[in-house]
Automatic annotation (TrEMBL):
The lineage of its organism: Bacteria, Bacillati, Actinomycetota, Actinomycetes, Kitasatosporales. It comes from the Bacteria. CDD domains: HTH_ARSR (cd00090). This is ArsR family transcriptional regulator. It comes from Streptomyces luteireticuli.
Amino acid sequence: MTQEQLRLHEVRTALLDLLAEVGTVTATEAAGRLGYSSGLCSFHLRQLARHGYVEEAPHEGGRARPWRLRQQHSAEATDASMKDDGFEARARALEDESWQQWLAGRDRAPAAWRRDEAFSAISYLTPEEMSRVAETIRRALAPYRDREHRPLARPEGALPVALVARLFPLLPHAEPDGDEG
């Protein structure tokens, strides 16, 4: 995955997560919450709208342009959008591909970079707690976001690092139909 692909995924995912959390947001509000520029947030909100993920929220004129997650009108539409082989599926596939490339090539990395900090955990959370954990992770990463656009802010020896967090409920396994035997 290129740095640009990582960045596109990061910005758009952060915007979608923010909209899921707060409902509606302008590019300026998103920039303030996420630590990106309002121009960058505006661009990515328009791209998400172009691909059907977000839409303009009703508003009363003025320059403010609030956005919201695209309204689904039925459970079928929601199911179809979740099965769509769109942005989310492509982003996850790129993450997985980058991880496999890392595993295959880490023995060629400089000695100081040959380890990773991958971990996983299972916690019992409510939906609200899961959102708070995600926000805590975003806040922890916020001080490092400007380094992509400001190379002079990068400490010596800094390299791009993929930061992937997936928080999702573990659904119970479905019981098999029919008799076993």
